[in-house]
Amino acid sequence: MKLQLATALVLVAGSFFSPASGSVILPGDTADGDINANNVIVANGLTRAWNIAGTRSTDAAGLRNVLFVFDVSTLPTGGSLESIWFNATYRETWNNAALPDGFAVDAYFVGFSSTAALDNDVPAEMVHVAADTGPGIKIADDILVKGSTPANNTLIDEMGLGNAAFLTAMQGRATDGTENFAIFRINPDVALAPGAPGFRGFAFYQANEPAEANRPFLEYTEGVAIPEPSSVGLMSLGLLAVAKRRRR
Question: How far apart are CA 140 and CA 93, in angstroms?
């Protein structure tokens, strides 16, 4: 009978409570890439381990941004999603000191997509906006700013970004199975001319970066479900029924 009582407790309690999941990491998708001002894919994570928020001498179209794509099909929605952060690792690139004063980059949550693929027919929200504003939800402003001294790949660091608007958007994610990918944009907010002097800006590591610790990821916490009063009542009835059966 002790075994029956213990089994009943597990069955009843399991019907109304969900355990805390702690922190869960979702790795970036290999469709990560960057897009220039002419809405052209310049590079993607399938061929390179990092992309530049800035410009490079071989990019005649000039300024570009960096896109991250995450598969969020397993992400909880609604109130059970308590927090979420976007994390990325970056480094300064060649000729960083040649950037104009005030050069900085912002982070945006662009939105959801039904596919992880990035192509030249991308929504306008993904295209670079050479301003301090742009489509999507700004997760953070001026996350990286031109350094005061010359640098050549000397800075490697990780940033974690999140805000209330971002959390709300993720909590309301479409659950019909058609929008299981979330897209982020790292957007330079100061205009750069195309051409020389080579690489200028910040390089962000993509999903296929050999060093796993440098890859982008999302981290979230999920809360514990609290039973409604009616659920507690049903649980009590179940326990009483087991107790009566035991006395017979």
Answer: 21
